[in-house]
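subagent[fold] <- orchestrator: predict structure for attached chain, return tokens only, no commentary.
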Amino acid sequence: MLRKTLFWLHLCAGVIGGLVILIMSVTGVLLMYEKQIVAYVDRRAAGANGMATSAAPESARLGVEALLAAVSSGSGKTPTNVTLRADAREPVTVGLGRDTVLVDPSSGKVLAPQQAGIRAFFRSTTDWHRWLAATPEGRNNARAITGASNFAFLILVVSGLVLWFPRKWRWQNVRAALWFRGGLSAKARDFNWHNTIGFWCSTFLIVFTLTAVVMSYQWASNLLYTITGNEVPQQQQGGPAAEKPYAYPSDIDTAWAAAQQTPEWRSISLRLPIEKESAVFTIDEGIYWNIFGRSTLTSDMNGGVKKWEAYGDQNSGRQLRSWFRFTHTGESFGIVGQIIGFIACIGGAFLVWTGFSLALRRFRNWRLAKSVA
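subagent[fold] -> orchestrator:
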């Protein structure tokens, strides 16, 4: 009875959420190496503009105020964030809402937009992955659909792993479900692929779907803090829309200089606009096992430090939440994790295809048996 119940739960969850799961799996494959591809295109853009050979020393860099002013006047858009890297040969990254431009730190020149097309492609793919490319008005509903479908995928993987276990534990039965076999009929082939891919990808798919549940549902995110014995943080409200103009503080460079006092910093980011005369900097120190661990510095506009929060001093709930975010994309474990994620996403797409094929055959046989009766 338990096995039969799990089977019908597995079948219904797959039929209801299969199409959205397929979309998320395919887009997950396309997004897996986004950062490496964009970084490569950015390097080519910088090289095409002579930055690799003509980079000026640190002392010749323009101030952040001047860089933002140059980008704003040249693009007609309001910058929403800026990232400066310690290596003077690296361009400054300036966000313009959902767009991003690279800026020569010495001249303030916006580099040729060779990367615009690839960024637009990944942005569109991300929209499909997160909310099925819905308009801003419909994203809450679309996010609910993708979140529920991801939860259904988690149920599918767990129930499928239980159903994979043979009824009788004999090596012949186990071996038949462990690897691909040739010379099978279409139905037997799909069943063999479904079992084999599901078994080898199950552990990784559970990790990827479980981390996605934490990002999809606030209650799941809060649960991380609860189980680690930490206070649930208050939700932060989003900043104003990018198209709303605002004035930069005239002393932003003074505040930025305070952030640059952090020893051996690799990159410093600032989200704009600045509120309450306090600049909140996100700093990559490159000293933590979690390569995405970031520390936070809050400075006043006179360069005085109001608050310093090192990543290593953050509570376990917040650190775990950071791990979940980048484990979902495989990036927490470098290129190895991304390779595993890439294969698992392809496996997820094949599981949907073979699952639909088996379900349609079952439905067709049921209709045939009903008509004969």
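orchestrator: received. Logging for downstream: The longest strand covers residues 278-284. The longest helix spans residues 334-372.
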